[in-house]
Amino acid sequence: MAETFTRSACRHTERAVGGTTVVQLYGEIDFFTPPPLAERLDELTAVSRPGLVVDLRAVSFIDCAGLRLLCQARTRAAERHGRLLLVADGGQFRRLLRAAGLDRVFEIYDRLPEALAALTARPGTLGTGRPDQSESGRR
């Protein structure tokens, strides 16, 4: 008996909140993610001192190709003395990052307002990516 799997196609929206761009990702972020998403993240991180928040709360699946996409965007932001913060409200994404050895690389927040506040509080600084348990909402 053959099984049929359906994919939740990746899509994204973006909006400006103050001087910060928020990219909301939806669906599955994997090998089949359309190249325009990577190109758009490249554009958003090409400026000097980019401030970017990627909201992953509506992502149903992410694989190593999706993690690579996020790593590339974070690296590009860091090269330009900016920051890329992630919003993910579930432990599943954090467990995946831990398994991939990336849990100390990204700045991750449970809620969008907390990520925006962190980026606004230190807009000209490059985050270490190391979680600081003393900050509210950050893990």
Characterise the protein shown here:
This protein has 139 residues and is α/β, with parallel strands linked by helices. The chain is 32% helix and 27% strand. The chain is built from four helices and five strands, in the order ββαβαβαβα. Strands 1-2-3-4-5 form a five-stranded mixed beta sheet, sandwiched between helices. It is globular.
Spell out the blueprint of helices and strands.
Blueprint: E1 11-17, E2 20-29, H1 35-44, E3 51-62, H2 64-79, E4 83-87, H3 91-99, E5 107-109, H4 112-121
Parallel strand pairs: 2-3, 3-4, 4-5
Antiparallel strand pairs: 1-2
Brief descriptors of the model:
5-stranded mixed beta sheet, 139 residues, disordered C terminus, alpha/beta, 4 helices
Shape: globular
Rg of Cα set: 15 Å
**Poorly predicted ranges:** 126-139
Order of helices and strands: EEHEHEHEH
Major sheet description: 5 strands, mixed
The assigned structural class equals alpha/beta
Q: How many individual helices? A: 4
Distance between the termini: 43 Å
Mean pLDDT: 83
Strand order of the biggest β-sheet? 1-2-3-4-5
Proportion in β-strands = 25-35%
Estimated helix fraction = 25-40%
Number of E-type strands: 5
What's a concise summary of this model?
By secondary structure, the chain is of the alpha/beta class. It contains four helices and five strands; from the N terminus they run ββαβαβαβα.
